[in-house]
Specification:
single chain; about 375 residues; alpha+beta; 5-stranded antiparallel beta sheet; 14 helices; elongated
Length: about 375
């Protein structure tokens, strides 16, 4: 279920952009939209009606154009949804003190490893993981070299009968990357894992998942997808003789479509806090390492991305906007022949019709996307 919600969130991204003046005709388009002084073009009525008289000929033109603009969406193709889901499940099953067969096994593994290390230094372990870890760290006297403990953790992992092969692989990979100085167990909760900090570079799957989570959060905060289509057909009626006596005429039809999708995410509800069954935990990217630490039900309900996608929450919304503009311009221009040059004057009037639509879809577990898309296609709003 969480995987489905995550996929839904990923594909509902972009932002509303302002209406922009486009270009008509291939010549103008090749010049970056310039056309105000392009007298040989058939599109004088679009850019500057005075151009109707500047090159008095019969001209017919048509223009079809569509453009796409996106920002920050290409990164979606690099996100491995399957790996993110698998890693989340492995973390919950391995580190969370659930009621399964491996309940609290991470505590047992560390306890066994500490027992071996302390005995090797002629000290007596207490069997209490919190106290024995404090003793071990005191022996280190500020040193961050935990290679001896990491080695014993790997031995204990391989000797465990409660861990699955996937969990053994994960713990074996990260044993040497754990910051044992920031490894905490909650003595008030039967020494359940409270916080673990892991340096990047230990487990490739975990590193990729954490990086993808950070990328996804950035995409949801800042993204853009828009479609613009501008089309037209134009007729200019003129000749040198007609222009000298009566002037030049032009008539056209311009049709434009501006469509945008915008995912409006609540920035306060973007943290990856999960309900691990026996408690709430948050996975945080700290730059060169990441932490998996205990959280609370209150934080889960207020700040979790997963919680915000459940129920009938409207914390995150998909906003679709479209604007269709139809124009029928009629233009007239006349050339005045002066002693030192010619003066072209033009005027145009337009019949314009605009239709705008907006549709807002709350993104959550109960969203019926098929129904919402049908409502969107009907353009009733």
């Amino acid at each position: 279920m969480k995987k489905q919600l995550l996929i839904s969130a990923i594909f509902c991204v972009s932002e509303v952009c302002a209406l922009e003046f486009g270009s008509m005709g291939n010549t103008s388009a090749s010049m970056g939209g310039a056309g105000v002084a392009l007298k040989s073009s058939a599109w004088g009525l679009y850019y500057n009606p005075a151009l109707l008289a500047a090159d008095p000929r019969v001209k017919i033109g048509y223009s079809l154009g569509i453009g796409f603009k996106e920002h920050n969406l290409a990164e979606i193709t690099k996100i491995d949804i399957s790996n993110m889901s698998n890693v989340a499940e492995r973390l919950i099953e391995t580190f969370t003190d659930t009621s399964g067969a491996n309940a609290g096994e991470i505590k047992n593994v560390v306890t066994s490893a500490l027992d071996s290390v302390l005995k090797a230094s002629s000290q007596t372990p207490t069997g209490d993981v919190t106290k024995d870890l404090e003793t071990y760290l005191q022996n280190k006297q500020g040193s961050s070299d935990y290679s001896d403990l990491a080695k014993e953790v790997m031995n204990a992992v391989q000797s465990s009968s409660a861990l699955t092969p996937e969990q053994k692989s994960l713990l074996d990979n990260i044993a040497g990357s754990i910051d044992y100085g920031n490894l905490n167990f909650d003595s008030a909760k039967n020494n359940a894992l409270q916080n673990i900090t892991i340096k990047k570079g230990g487990d490739n799957g975990l590193d990729k998942a954490v990086g993808d989570i950070s990328t996804l959060q950035e995409i949801l905060k800042d993204n853009n997808l828009s479609v613009v289509s501008q089309n037209g057909v134009i007729l200019q009626i003129s000749s040198k003789t007609i222009n000298q006596k009566l002037g030049s005429l032009g008539v056209a039809y311009f049709g434009s479509l501006y469509s945008n999708l915008s995912f409006k995410a609540d920035p306060e509800r973007m943290r990856l806090i999960v309900n691990g069954g026996g408690g709430y935990y948050e996975l945080t990217d700290n730059g060169d390492n990441y932490s998996y630490k205990e959280s609370t039900k209150d934080d889960y309900e207020k700040f979790s991305l997963i919680a915000s996608l459940e129920g009938d929450s409207d914390a995150h919304k998909l906003v679709t906007t479209s604007f269709v503009l139809s124009e029928i311009p009629v233009g007239y221009a006349r050339t005045f022949y002066l002693k030192y040059g010619n003066l072209n004057l033009g005027v145009s009037g337009k019949l314009m019709n605009g239709i705008s639509t907006q549709h807002i879809i709350a993104i959550n577990k109960g969203t019926d996307f098929e129904k919402e898309l049908k409502d969107l296609a009907s353009l009733d709003n």
